Amino acid sequence: MARRLKIAIFEPARMWVGGGMRSIEKIASYLSGKHEVDIFTQRQPPKHLNYNKSKIRIIGPRSFFLAPFVFLFNKVDNYDMIILGGFPANLGSIINSKRIPCITMCHSPTRVFYDLRNYTLKHSDYKGKIKAWIKLLLLKHLDYLAAQKTTKIITNSLNTGRRVKKYYHRDSEPFYTGINFYDFKKGRYEDYILVVSRFTSAKRVDLVVRSMDFVKNKSIRLYVVGSGGEDELKIKKMCEKRPNVRFIGFVDQKKLVELYSNCLAVAYTPLREDWGMAPIEAGASGKATIGVNEGGLRETIIEGKTGFLITKVTPQKIAGKIDLLANNKSLAKKMGEEAYKYTIQFDWKKIEPVLDKIVSEVVKTNKKIY
């Protein structure tokens, strides 16, 4: 029988529940069924998240501004290993990795420091530019150093692994961020396209909203679901100006499952997304995804089979794919069935055993694993 370990997890206090928080939730829930798990974070996680037997340990101060320094100086003892979530929790490897083996769960090298640096500066207001420059000047070096100090880096996709190699000059191992596949369900193919996203400029929800100006099939509607992000008010106003678009905002999991199950298809067009949960959730619901030929979507969508990968995306191109499916629901259903068969591989139950192997490997060594 495998030895029972004592594991610390460092997780940042995030402003919204996204793929990063969900992955740590699943990792903690799974590991706490076998090991003793303590989660170090600045704020109490949302009550609807299930960390199983994990213990939440609140560390202060609670300020988001001071978070990088909270994790940078959070020295722990008497643990067999540490799992580090996204920035700034990953900074915990700098002070701890000499004594305790560390695994960094990387959803992407911190994007404002690397691949989205110029994009962020270009699309930010004056205050946003100041914040971005402060991060770049004060924290980018620490982020890079943390990647060098950690024992092993695991990534949510092969796409993210390539970024780790490019920006951190480290090899990594994929550990896909999956879903509870059977929590979703198949339903009808009604006359609406679904968008599920946060509202940041890099998610490019505005492209999908504007695509409805070019959709020729007048029976089709667009439902926009999500919350959080600096563009939320902007997207809401854009939706209100269009009679064929409905801004729904935040919904609970039960309502989200219902919306997925009965949509015609899902639209998801982020800029060079690391991974992206929407195509997987769509597939689990028997639905195709209208996506972009960029980033992690190349791993979750098979062009022409489980959805569409649009190159050099525009609202007009998105509209063309919407009309194609709206005018041929048998095609939408066929692609949805293929998406269901393809994305079942991302069920958490199929992914979890990989974590056992990684933990076992890392706990035996405190040297970098390349």
Q: What descriptors fit this protein?
A:
Rossmann fold; 2 domains; 6-stranded parallel sheet; alpha/beta; 370 residues; 15% strand; 14 helices; 13 strands
A few lines on this structure:
This protein has 370 residues and is of the alpha/beta class. The chain has helices at residues 19-31, 67-72, 92-96, 117-122, 126-149, 158-168, 205-211, 232-240, 253-262, 278-284, 297-300, 315-326, 329-343, 348-363; strands at 6-10, 36-41, 55-58, 81-84, 102-106, 152-155, 173-174, 192-196, 221-225, 245-249, 265-267, 289-292, 307-310.
Tally of individual domains: 2
Shape, principal axes of CA atoms: globular
The radius of gyration is 21 Å
Given this structure, which CATH class of the largest domain is correct? Answer: Alpha Beta
What characterizes the major β-sheet?
7 strands, parallel
Alpha plus pi helix count:
14
Strand order of the largest sheet: 3-2-1-4-5-6-7
Helix-strand topology string? EHEEHEHEHHEHEEHEHEHEHEHEHHH
Beta-strand content bin: 15-25%
